[in-house]
Write a structure and sequence with these properties.
The complex is a heterodimer of chains A (498) and B (1020). Chain A is mainly alpha-helical. Chain A folds into 3 domains: 45-206, Serine Threonine Protein Phosphatase 5, Tetratricopeptide repeat; 207-256 and 383-447, Serine Threonine Protein Phosphatase 5, Tetratricopeptide repeat, CATH 1.25.40.900; 292-376, no CATH class. Helices cover 46% and strands 6% of the residues of chain A. Chain A starts with a helix and ends in an 11-residue tail after the last helix. In chain A, 54% of the residues are buried. Chain B is globular. Chain B has 13 helices and 52 strands. Chain B is mainly beta and 1020 residues long. Helix content of chain B is 9%, strand content 46%. The model of chain B is unreliable at 1-24 (pLDDT under 50). Among the domains of chain B are: 2-101, Immunoglobulin-like (Sandwich), CATH 2.60.40; 105-236, Beta Complex (Ferric Hydroxamate Uptake Protein, Chain A, domain 1); 790-1019, no CATH class. Classes of the chains: A mainly alpha (498), B mainly beta (1020). At the A-B interface, helix 1, helix 2, helix 5, helix 6 and strand 2 of A face strand 25, strand 26, strand 27, strand 28 and strand 32 of B. Chain B: Residues 118-223 form the TonB-dependent receptor plug domain.
Amino acid sequence: MKKNKNIYTKAVLGLGLIVAIAVIPACKKSFLNVPEQGKQNSAVFWKTAEDAGKGVSAIYGNLRSWENTAFPAIAIESMGSDDAEKGSTPSDASFFNDFDQFNVDPAQGNIGGFWSGQYRNINYANQVLDNVPAIVMDEALKARYLAEAKFVRAFSYFRLVRAFGNVPLRLTTPKDANVDYNLPQAPAAQVYAQIEKDLTEAAEILPQTYPAADKGRATKGAALTLHAKVAMYLKKWSDVATYTNQVMGMGYSLLPDYEKVFRLENENGPESIFEIQCVLLPGNPDASNSQYSQVQGVRGTSGVDGGGWGFNVPTADLAAAFEPGDPRRSGTILFRGTTTPEGDVIPKVGDNPMYNMKSYVPFKLYISNFNEGAQQNVRMLRYSDVLLMNAEAANELGNTGQALSSLEQVRRRARQGNPDILPAVTTTDQTALRAAIYKERRVEFAMEFDRYFDVIRQGRGTAVFGPKGWKAGKNEVWPIPQTEVDLSGGVLIQNPGY
Amino acid sequence: MKRIFTKFSVLTFLCLLFINAASAQNITVKGTITDGQDKTTIPAVSVVVKGTTTGTQTDANGKYAISVPANGTLVFTYIGYNTQEVPVNNQTTINASLASSSQQLEQVVVVGYGTQRKVDVTGSVASLKGSEISKQASTNPVSALQGKIAGVAITNTGTPGSAPQIRIRGLGTIFGNQAPLYVVDGVWYSDINFLNPGDIENMSVLKDASAQSIYGIRAANGVVLITTKKGKLGSATTINYDAYAGFQSVTNKVKMANATEYGTVINELYTQNGQDPLFKDPSALGTGTDWYKQILQDAFVMNHNISIAGGTEKSTYNVSLGYLDQDGIVKTNNFKRYTARVSNDIQIFKDLKVGYNVTGVASQSRDIPQTIFHQMYSASPTISVFNPDGTYGDPKLQNLGDGANFNPQATLDYFNQQTKDYRVTGNIYAELKFAKHFTFRTSVGGEFGQMENRKYNPVYFATTAQKNDVSLLDLKRVETRNWIVENTLTYQNTFNEDHSLTVLLGQSAQSNKAYTINASAQNVPFNSDADLYLSLGDAATRSILDQGSLIKFASYFGRVNYAFKNKYLLNASIRADGASQFYGNETWGYFPSVGAGWVVTNEDFMKDQTVFSSLKIRGSWGKVGNASVPINPSQLTVSQTGQLIAFFNGLPSTGASIDMVVPPAIVWEKGIGSNIGFEAAFLKNRLTVEGEYYTRKTSRAIFAIPALMSLGTVTNDLIGNQADLQNSGVELSAAWSDVTGGGLTYSIGGNISYNKNKVTSVLSGKTPIYGGSTGLTNGYVANRTIEGSPIGEFFGYKTVGVFQNAADVANSPAQAGALPGGFKYADTNGDGKINSQDRVPLGNPNPKYTYGINTSFAYKNFDLALDFQGVAGVDVYNSNLAYRFGNENFTKDFVDNRWHGEGTSNTYPSASIGSSANSAPNSFYVSSGSYFRVRNAQIGYTLPKSILTKWKIQKIRFYANAQNAINLFGYKGFSPEVGPIPVDNAEKILASQTNYLNAGLDANVYPLYATYNFGVNLTF
C-alpha cells in the first residue's frame, strides 16, 4: 500500500509537471505575439535603392493589366468611336454595344474597371513619389525614378480626365480614412494643370535614351510627346509646336513599312516613343498577363491556336475611310479570307469580317497555357503622332508650310514609294488643311484607341458619332462609376446627363 | 449490381421469415399493472415473454392476460418507468407496480467541459445518439443531422468526401469560417470529415449563446460536441461489425434538348442575330448524345466498420477500423477513406484515471473537373462522344463557336487529379479526484495533418479546343499542426440536500499552424506515378509558392451551476479569450452568460396535477465570439507578384510595391444571444414537447465593404467589422413514443424551425454590397446585402413579360438591347426608362423554415424507420439558364416554352436568352427552393436470439435503406438544395476564406442523388 502511495504521489507530481510545462508558456505575454507569416512588412521596405527600383518596376508592370489594355480600355477608349465595334459572337459581352450606342448604365463594370485601373497606376506612382525621396541612394538615379513615376501618373490622369472630366486628384498615397480616402473631384482644368506639371518635371530629368538594359522606360521624348498631346487637347497650340519640335530633333524616324511598325521585331524601334512592355515569360503566366492581343485576336481560326476572342473589330466605315491603295488599310485591318504576311490563314467563314491587325501576333508564337499574343507590346505613343500634332499646331498657328511638311512625312512613309497613291496634300486653306490632318490622324492611328477622344476634342462629336447616339453636353465624358458615386456618399458628383 | 442486391435481399428476408421460436407447456397469466407511486393503473404497458416476441399490452384498466411457458419470465415495459422482469414460476396472477424511472430526470447531456442532467440545463442543447447517425448512409457525420434537430440546417453537397454545409440558427457570419466549432473528446476542430460516423457515441449541439459561451472564442456559429465510443468497465469483449453496400443514383435529372430541338433553337438564335442558320436540316440531327447518360453512372458505395470494445475492472478499451469506398455519380470519381481509432481509459488508482484517444485517417480522392457539371449541361447534343474512328467528337468541326466547344468525355478522360489526406489526431488526459468534491482534469490534444493535391495535365489532343501542348504538374500540400492544452478544476457538492452546486474553473491554450506549398513545373514526363515529381520538369518553369499561417489562443473560463431543490436553476459562466490575430486592445475578448430555469412540476402545488409529467421553463442570455475570421494585416505589407514584373529590353525586372491601405483593425465578431424555452412531458412522459424562441445578434460582423476605387488598391474591398446582423426564430419539437398491446414499439418525432435573417446595420448604410457572380455572364451579380434585408438577397429586374414585336418594344419604356423575344422589365421607378435603378429585391436565399419528421417502428423482429425532411420559404437563382457564351444547349423545358415568334410566350424569352439584356439578373431566374423529401427509409430484421445463441452471436440485423429516394419540389433545376459552390479540391485546400454573399446561385451544382443500400449489423 505504501508503495502504491509512493507511485500515486509520483504520478500526481508528474501530472503537475506536465500541466506546468503546458501552461507556463501559454501564460507568457509573448505567447499571443505572433508575427504575420510570410509577408514582408512595409516597415522594412522603401529602405534601399533596390526597393526603389522594384517600386518603379511595379509601376511599369502594372501597365499591362487587364484594366489598362483589355476590356475596360476598349470600352472607354475605343467602342465609342466610328472605327470600332463590339465584334466576337453576338451574345458574348454584349455590354460593349451599350458603349458603342451611348446608352451604357453607370453601373456597368467596365467603367469602374477603367477607373480603378488608372487609379492603381496612380497609386504605384504615388508610392514611389512618397517613399523614394527619403531613400539614401544615387541622387541622379533617384531623380530619374521620380521622373518615371511622374510620367506614368500624368499618363494615367490624362486617360482619366479625358474619359471622365472632373476626377479626384490623388497625389499622395492614402493615409487616413477620415482625411484623404474620400476625395472630392478636382475640376478638369486642375487635373490638366497637374498633368502638365508632372510632365514638365519629368521631361527635365528623363534621359533621351537609355542603355540597352533599360529599354522600355519612359524617356524625355515620351514625356514631351505626351505633353504635346495634352496641350493639343487643351488647344495650347504654341506649346504643342514647341514640344513636338523638340521631339522632332531627337532622332526618331518612321519605319519604311507601316504594317511592320506593329510587329514584334520592331518593338521599341526608331518610331516608338512609348510602349507598354509585354513579354511571354516561360514558366510565369502571371508576368505574361497581357490580354491586349488575346481579346482582339481573330476569333474562329479553324483548328489553329493563336487567335483570340475577336472583340473590338474595325467597322465597315473605317475600311472605307482609307484612300484608294493606302497600304495602311491592310496594316490596320485583318480581313477574313486573307493570309497574313506571316502565313496565317484567316478562314473565309467566321463571326466577324475584320479584326484589328495592329494587335496581331503570328499564331505559331502561341504557347498553351498562356494568353494569345501575350508578347505584343502596346504602342502608346508613336513618332507619327508627333508629326501630325506638329502639323496640326502649325496649321492652327498659321504656319502652313511647316504643317504641310510634317503631314507629308507621314503620308510619304505610308506611300512606301508608290507614286500612284496618297498624293501629297497641298492645300493652304487652314480649314481644308485641318480637315486633311484630322482625316490623316484617323487612318494613321485607327484601332490604336486614339480616335474616340480625338474627335471629341476636335469638337466634332455630334457630327461624327451623332448617328450612333452621341449627344453633345453629355457624351463628352463617360459617367463616373456608379459604385464609386454611391460609396462616396455624396462627395462625388455624377456627370451631367447620367 | 442493383439486381444482385435485390435478389440477395429477397432471399434473405424469405428465409428469415419462416424461422420461429418454439414454445411449450403454456399457462395463462393475468394481472394488473399499477404506478408504483400513485397506485393508478397504467394502460398500454407492454407485456412480453422474455426471449420471445410473444407479447401483449394492458388494457384501459391496466389489466392483461397472456399465454406463457410456466417456467418463463414476463417483462413489463413502459415508457418513463423502469422495466420489470417477473419469473412466472407457475403463478397465474402476476400484478406488478412499476417504479417511475427517473430516466427523464436523470438523462444526462453533454455540455461544454462536462455533462449535466438534462433537467438542469438552462440553455438550448440538443443531442443525437451515435446509433441515429451511423445507421444512415451518410458518409459524413454532419450530414446525418439533417432534419433531426430543430434549428440545425444541413445543406448536402454531392461530392464524395466533402463536408456538407451546416448552419445553426441561421447565418451569423459572412466572412471566415461559418461552420460551427466541433469538439471531439475535448479537441477542437473546424471540420470533422476525418471522423467515421460509426465511432460516434453521442453528438450534442449547443444552440444558444449561454450554452456556447463557455467556448467563447469560436462559439458564435454554434458548437457541436462529439463523444466517441468507449468500452465499458468490467464488460466482456464485444465485437461489432457493421457494413453496408449499395449504389447511388441520380434523381430529378433535368431533361436537356435533343439534337433536333437543339438545332432548331440554335438556328433561331442565328436568325435573330442576323446570321445564316447553322444547321441545314435540324430534323435530320435525330436525338443525338445525352451527355448526362454518357457521363453519369449509378455509383457503388460500400462501408465496413469493425470495432472491438470491452473492459476490465480498471480499464476500458475500444478499437475500431473503418473503410469507405464511394464512387461518385460522375464516372471516374472515387473516394476512399480508411479510419482507425483507439481509445483506452485506465483507472490507475481509485482517484486517478488516465486515458487517450487516437484517430488516424487516410483518404484518397480521385477528383473530377468541377467544370464537368456545366459542360454536361451545355455540351451540344449534336456532337457524338466518339467518331467511328475512335477520335472524340469535335464541336469546332460543326462550327459551334466558342460557347460550347467541348466534349465532356474528353474533359473527363484527360483530367488527372487526386487528393490525399493523412491525419493523426487525438488527446491524452488525466483526471484526478481529490478532497472529496474536487476533480482536476488535464488534457493535451493535437492534430497533425497533411493534405496533398496532385494534378497532372498531360500533352494531348482530344478536340480542337481541348488539347494541351505543354504538360504541367501541379502540387499542393497543406500541413496542419495544431495543439491544444486544457486544464479544468471542478468542484461539486450538495448542501443540506437542497442546494446543489457545481463550480468549474479552466484554462486553455492552443496553437494552429498551417503550412502550404503550391508548386508546379512543366514538361514532367509521365509513364507512371513514379515520374510525377517536380524535379523531372524543366527547371526554368518550376515555381514554388510557400505560405503559412499561425494563430494562437489563450483562454481562461469559469462556470457556476446552482440548483435549489431541483426547482430553481441558475447557471452563469464567463470566458476570457486572447487571440493572436487581434492586436492592441482587442487581443482579449470576454464572453459572459447567464441562464435560469424553473422546474414547475417539482413545486408542491403541482403535485396533484396529472396533465404534465414534467414542465420546465428556462431562459438564458450570453455572449459569444468568432475568432475564425480572416487575418487582417495590421500593417502595410509589400506585394511582389508576377503581375508587377516589368520588362526592360525584354528581360524581367522584379516589381514590388504597396497596393493596399491598412484596413480597419479586425476585432472580434461578437454574438449576443438570448433564448427562452420550455420543456414539457405529458401522458406519463410518452409525449414530450419543447419550444424555444431566440434572438441572435452578431455585432461588428466582419464584412467586405467595397472601397473607393480611387484609392488604387489592388483589391477593391476593405474587410472590417462593419455590419450588424440578426437572426431570430422559433423552434418547436415534439416526440411521442409508446408500445402498443400488439407489441409494436414506435416513436414519432417532429421538429420545425423558423429563422429570420436580417442585416440590421452596415457601415455602407443604404449603399448595397453586391456579390454573387457564379454562372452569371457579362459582369452581372445577383446578390446584394443592404441594411434591413436578409444577407445576400437576390436583386435584379422584375420581368413583366416578353416583347412580342417591334411595336411592343417601341411602346415600352426605353430599355437597352430590347428586341422582340427579349424580357420586358418593369419600370419600377416610373422614369420611362429601364436601367439599373429599376432593380428590386427578387428573393431570399436564406431558408425561413426547416423541418423534419422522424419515425421509428419495431414489431417483433422487424424495425422500420422513416425520416422526412424539408425546407420552405427559400429561393434559388437558376444561373444555369443564361450561363451562355454562344451555342450552349438548352433545357427541354426551355425549348418547349420559349418565345419563337409573336404570341408564342409571354414568360420565356427567345433563344437569345444569353444576351446581355436577357441575362441580366431578373425574376425569371428566381424560383422557390422549397422541397420535401423522404430523407431515409430503412427496414430491418433482427434474427431471433434462439438461433443466434447456437452460433455464439449476440445479434444479427439485416436492413435495407433508401436515402433521398423521393424528393418533391417545384424548382426546374437539378436540386433546390443549393449548397456551397463546388470547389475543386485543388483550390479548396488552399482556400482561406469563403464569401457567403454568393448564396443560392445554382450553376455547376453536383446533381442530387439517392442512395440505396443493404447492410448488416453483427455483434459477437
